[in-house]
Structure formats: structure tokens, C-alpha cells
Write a structure and sequence with these properties.
Strands 5-4-6-7-1-8-15-14-13 form a nine-stranded mixed beta sheet, sandwiched between helices. The protein has eleven helices and 15 strands. A hairpin with a 5-residue loop joins strand 10 and strand 11. By secondary structure, the protein is an alpha+beta fold. About 5% of the residues have low confidence. Helix 8 packs across helix 9. It folds into three domains: about 200 residues, Peroxisomal Thiolase, Chain A, domain 1 (3-Layer(aba) Sandwich), CATH 3.40.47; about 120 residues, 3-Layer(aba) Sandwich (Peroxisomal Thiolase, Chain A, domain 1); about 35 residues, no CATH class. It starts with a strand and ends with a strand.
Amino acid sequence: MSEAYITRITKFLPNESVSNEEMEEYLGYINGKPSKSKAIVLRNNGIKNRFYALRKDGTPTHTNAEMAALAVQDLFKNNPAEIGEMDLLSCATSSPDQLMPSHGSMVHGYLPQADSIEVVSPSGVCCAGMHAFKYAYMAVKLGEKQKAVACASERLSTVLRSDQFEDEIQQLTRLEKNPFLAFEKDFLRWMLSDGAGAFLVEPAPNKEGISLKIDWIEGCSYANEIEACMYMGADKLEDGTLRSYKDFTAEEIQERSVLSIKQDVKLLGEKIVKLGFAKLRDILLKRGVTIADVSYFLPHLSSYFFEGKIDEFFRENGMPIPKEKWYTNLVTKGNVGAASIYMMLEEVFNSGALKKGEKILLAVPESSRFSYMFCLLTVC
């Protein structure tokens, strides 16, 4: 088998960054009033800035597929004709612009310079970006592709606008006592961000500069054990099953906010850290990797609230990671779902700080139905 390397990483962020103070100018006011829970949610998630692919009046500036294509094009900015050598396009998102055609096909449609190539569209939520990456990795590893592109993108700002939401959470006392309650509905308005990222995966490292050798990528799902936690386009029934939007009338979809993103916060608090990071502990043991081997730890966080929970788990299990090895850009980019891990790795990769031989551990938890993806990279 061939080896596989990330040789280039790019990102695309739409428009200017939006501060906490400006958010409601873009997302609107519920019932014409400022949010009463906004300050509490922002204090818990720690985000200061994010990006929206829309103007203050709600007019979209980019489609999801367009942002992904712009990130892909940027991989080839030094030689635009080279995009014609791309032989795989693997695109992920949790927020496609349409149900059909596939998201990957739409991204390909924005790339007329590309050839007629294989296109895949992994579905899911935060882990989808890692699934797209793993497909590209395996294709190169098997020797079937020579210049594979993986990308991930999100555009959720339009469904966060006030005209799409039910009444916000009003019980501030409960929010103060239990931060998990802030996640139920209103938290998503103050957390999610738009943007895209892309990796170029090749069978040989760069001749100049650094590359990232892909040592392994592993994932797991606990959907066989646990019901859905975060969902959209469905409603959760008392027995924990989901009822599809297809089984509601148009009136019911509107009344029940079936197309809004919702979170079962009780499940989130109980399961999100201990399930996935116990699995990471087992993977590292199986792979013969110790925490001491890791130079950089990049966890995808939906909120800084979970940073302490992950750190606590590591310490309790005898695998502490010093905080100076942690890296996340949640504070400046917000939660960009499937694209978050791409954006974090892009900043580290292009920082000039990496040294050959260092190892980077990626961790992507997904609360939707408790899926997790982990990856180890070596700088070369």
C-alpha cells in the first residue's frame, strides 16, 4: 500500500467576522426583543466571533456548495490548472443547500476547471468531515487516487434567524444552575458558524515545506445503544424514536418547528465525553500510542464548557494532556460543524510552528447520535 499525506490545507470564511454584540443584527430578535439567555449561553461556550454567509437583512451571500468550492480552489491557487489533476472530490456537510442532488455534486458543479471525476458525499454532522477525509485517505492509501481532495462546509446561519425559531428559553434561573439547559434550543443561535475547509491528500509528501503523514483514522458509533440526541427535520417521540418530517403535514412542520435543530440536553451531558474519550483511550492502547507521544491535541468543541470535562476525563484515566498541547479556534471561528476540524488543522499547519516528527491528535465528537472520529498525524 501507498502512504497518504496531507500536503495542503485551506479554509474559506464568508464576509467579515461577527462579534457577540452584532449577532442579533444578523440573526434577528425573537418577538422583537433581545435574547434574555444569550449572555448566559455565550459565557458558557466562550465564543467571541463567528462568520455568517448572509447580510444583516438576511440576504445570503454564498451557498454552502459555493463556499466549499472556494476552499477547494484555494488548494490550487499557485497553479490553477493543477485542479484538473484532482481525481477525487469527497465533500461533507450537515447543512446541504438541497436534499437532491448530493452536496458533493453541487460542489463539483462550481468547479468547471476540474475533470469528470469520482465525487462522494458523506452525510452526518460533525463527524461527516472526518468521514470525507477518511474516504480520501483510503483511496490514496490503496493507490487508486493520486490527488484526492476532502472538504467540509456548513451554512446554518439562515436557519438560525429569528423567523425560523420558536420562543427562546426564558427560565434564566434554571440556565444559571445547569448550563446544559442552555443547549436545548437557543444555544445553537449563539454557537454555529458558516465556512469551509479543504485538504489535499497525496501519496508523497511535499518536496519543500512540511506535510502531515496520516498514521491512522478510526471512528465509532454508539447509535446501537443510545437514542438520538441532536436532530433536525424530525421530532422526538416519548419512546425516544424520531418521527420524520415526511410524516407531518405542512401545518404540523411549522407548528412543531420540525425543521429547527434541537438537542436532548440530558443525554448530551450524560454521554458526550465519557463514551467517546473512553474509546480514544482504547484506540491509543491498541495502537501503542501514549499521550506523551502527542505534541498537539486538536479537539472539536461545540463549547468551551466541554473542554474542562474532557480534561477531567483524561486526568481521571491517567492520561493527562498538558494545556499547552491543546489547540482550538472556537473563540474566533465559532462551531463550524463538519468543517471545524479542517479549520483548526489549517491554522496549525500554516502557522510555521510545526516541526518534523511531531504528532497531532485529532478528536471529533458528534452528539447527534454519539459518533466519534479520531486521527493521528505525523509532521514530515
